[in-house]
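Anyone up for a design puzzle?
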């Protein structure tokens, strides 16, 4: 496969109402948090942490019984999903056609027989009454629905800067120094790792780089891009359970996003540091 047309769009962080209204210090002291708005279904709202690379972390909160985003309805607080997109001349429809063509025939496993919905309209009202519009395409499965094993896709209808104000330095400058998404880490059970690897390759349109330790493969990195050129490298990283914590994660939360690494600018050397030692904060790290 050649270079992927997919680029990072955003990551979804579900918060309980009290943390949404008054974000904990590991969020408020590290990031500039912007007001988002209420989604069209009037059952959810969001705030945004926007990065200079054109991506963002969405702080998502339910305000009523879910009438949209049903895949997230029964999720526990934390990282719950992530979205990719593509840039012009690629469109929501053309990317959907490309993905469906690559998915082609089933992998002979009904449970992993994933397809994507046709792009559907979505919107929300910003606090200043500006309408934000997009189209999204979500994974569906032969024997189940509302799963987040694989990314969804989000394409802007209104200008991207209306949904993601990445062109305003005041809104993309953060106390922690984060400038964008480095890696979205996905965990899948070892028993299905081969199938998941093949499906991620088909969906992303890219071959992975095998990362090994002592001669043993530990993860597969699928390199993708950003909405704003000049940042990188970046990846969707697929791995299997490595310890009891991972096993518990798969049991309680299922296959899907396990961690988020954010790129940090301006620091010397190389390192990685989680925003906290436990809970949700421990799943988001800074990398430099």
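Challenge accepted. My sequence:
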């Amino acid at each position: 496969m050649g270079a992927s047309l997919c680029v990072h769009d955003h990551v979804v962080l579900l918060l309980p109402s009290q943390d949404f209204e008054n974000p904990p210090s590991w969020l408020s002291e590290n990031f500039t948090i912007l007001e988002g708005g209420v989604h069209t279904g009037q059952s959810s709202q969001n705030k945004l942490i926007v990065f200079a690379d054109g991506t963002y972390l969405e702080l998502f909160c339910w305000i009523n019984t879910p009438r949209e985003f049903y895949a997230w309805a029964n999720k526990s607080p934390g990282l719950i999903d992530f979205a990719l997109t593509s840039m012009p001349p690629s469109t929501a429809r053309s990317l959907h056609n490309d993905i469906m063509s690559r998915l082609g025939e089933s992998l002979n496993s009904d449970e992993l027989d994933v397809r994507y919905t046709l792009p559907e309209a979505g919107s929300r009202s910003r606090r200043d009454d500006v309408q934000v519009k997009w189209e999204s395409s979500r994974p569906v499965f032969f024997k189940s629905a509302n799963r987040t094993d694989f990314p969804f896709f989000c394409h802007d209808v209104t200008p991207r800067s209306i949904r993601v104000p990445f062109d305003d330095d005041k809104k993309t400058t953060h106390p922690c120094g984060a400038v964008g998404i480095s890696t979205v880490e996905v965990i899948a059970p070892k028993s299905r790792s081969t199938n998941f690897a093949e499906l991620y390759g088909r969906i992303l349109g890219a071959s992975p780089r095998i990362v090994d330790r002592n001669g043993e493969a530990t993860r597969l990195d699928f390199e993708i891009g950003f909405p704003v050129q000049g940042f990188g490298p970046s990846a969707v990283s697929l791995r299997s359970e490595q310890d009891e914590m991972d096993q518990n994660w798969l049991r309680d939360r299922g296959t899907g996003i396990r961690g988020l690494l954010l790129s940090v600018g301006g620091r010397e050397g190389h390192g990685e540091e989680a925003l906290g030692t436990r809970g949700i904060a421990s799943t988001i790290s800074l990398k430099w």
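A detail worth pointing out: The radius of gyration is 18 Å.
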